[in-house]
Amino acid sequence: MCKRLEELEYDLAIIAPPYIMTKTEEQVINWVAKVAENTQIGLAFYNSPQFGITLSAKALSKIADIPNVVAIKEASFNMNISIDTHLEAGKKVVVSTPDEEIFFYEPYYGFHQQVMFANTSDWRFDTEEKHDYVEFINLATKGELEKAKEIYPRIWPIKRVSRKWWGRLVARTGGSLPVQMVKYWGELMGMAGGHVRPPLIPLTDEEKKEIREDLTKLGLIKLTLKA
Q: Would you state the pLDDT for residue 225?
């Protein structure tokens, strides 16, 4: 697949552990190294429990030493791993944690996250009228934390509802990314969400009703919207 990307003149491929076969950190490190040996494009490694294994910061630091690896998306949902990854690997590759709170640890630990890779939350925060999330990320990635902190209280209530649903559905499915929630939330926000396909389980009517009520209270949608 990386060879095909080279032919298409892509610059970067995002890779993750082969979730059926890699059960140890050493297997993952060796596999990333093997991919890197066989491609000329840059590689970004994606660390997330949805792939069946979550790597430690020390293992991620070893991956950062591999030629061609230029970035790590550290999405373990474990803030200790995220902070340690910034400290262990942040001077070797670009590290991004898709969790807004990571920015507030920077002054205490002496690192800086300069990008926010593919956060599945960003589009759920802003509307045509309000762009608090975009403004927060723009300020935080530039290191303007004091200004970013002034905006965060407007983001946190939405984040709290997002985490409520994220945690509930991840627990129900044993760690699967809650695509059904993401699709329905996006649909309520005016995007084309559509349904999920098996083996993913769709939201129940009761869950849809509760999500609509939550987003209505947040002011993100109006009560006139239907399931």
A: 45
